[in-house]
């Protein structure tokens, strides 16, 4: 067992997303004696059991997915379909040039505390393969040998995704803040109708961004008599209206 290969009686099987063929992880899993099946997964990169799905990200991809909010959307979809979701971060975050490391670690803390997701760091594709085998072995033991079966996952342009896309298109919002706004106001219509002060109270929005949002939503750009007030004058008007 020193080479990491699973015992033959364990018959470990891991389902791998087609896009992961470009990584070195599937080949390493095969070398370690795992039965690898490729499929077009709707969520996640690896399915190690009926109840556990794994998303693998390089340190660079993790950083990009935090900035554009993609990681939060991906994990929401994973948790809709699997009891356990795991994020494997491959590589060193320290090697990335980040102005504020707390942006990354704050997001990881959110994944752990808010989403109840397990976050695991590995040094290389080899150690990622070892971690996947360890997870698959654990779940195989806990499920008394129940095979890995793909769930029927309906993914497409769901109503929730459409709502997120609509709200994310507002100035300075994006996917992550769109989720916060929808959590606070429930629907895009409620977001659009929310008073400036209420928008500003949402974490990450603030006064200036809320003012830009309201200006885009309420400014009449087709009228020949459109006011060309400055942002400061506009936001003051909004504050006066809410007094």
Distinctive features:
six-stranded mixed sheet; DNA polymerase, domain 1; Rossmann fold; alpha/beta; single chain; 243 residues; 6 strands
SSE layout and pairings?
Layout lengths: L12 E5 L7 H7 L3 E5 L6 E4 L2 E7 H9 L2 H12 L2 E7 L10 H13 L4 E5 L2 H18 L16 H10 L5 H12 L2 H6 L2 H5 L5 H13 L12 H12 L1
Parallel strand pairs: 1-2, 4-5, 5-6
Antiparallel strand pairs: 1-3, 3-4
Helix pairs in contact: 1-5, 6-7, 10-11
Describe what you observe in this structure:
The chain has a six-stranded mixed β-sheet with strand order 2-1-3-4-5-6, with helices on both faces. α6 packs across α7. It has helices at residues 25-31, 59-67, 70-81, 101-113, 125-142, 159-168, 174-185, 188-193, 196-200, 206-218, 231-242, and strands spanning 13-17, 35-39, 46-49, 52-58, 84-90, 118-122. The protein has two domains: 8-142, 3-Layer(aba) Sandwich (Rossmann fold); 159-242, 5' to 3' exonuclease, C-terminal subdomain (DNA polymerase, domain 1, Orthogonal Bundle). It is built from eleven helices and six strands. The chain is of the alpha/beta class. It starts with 12 loop residues before the first strand and ends with a helix. The radius of gyration is 23 Å and the shape is elongated.
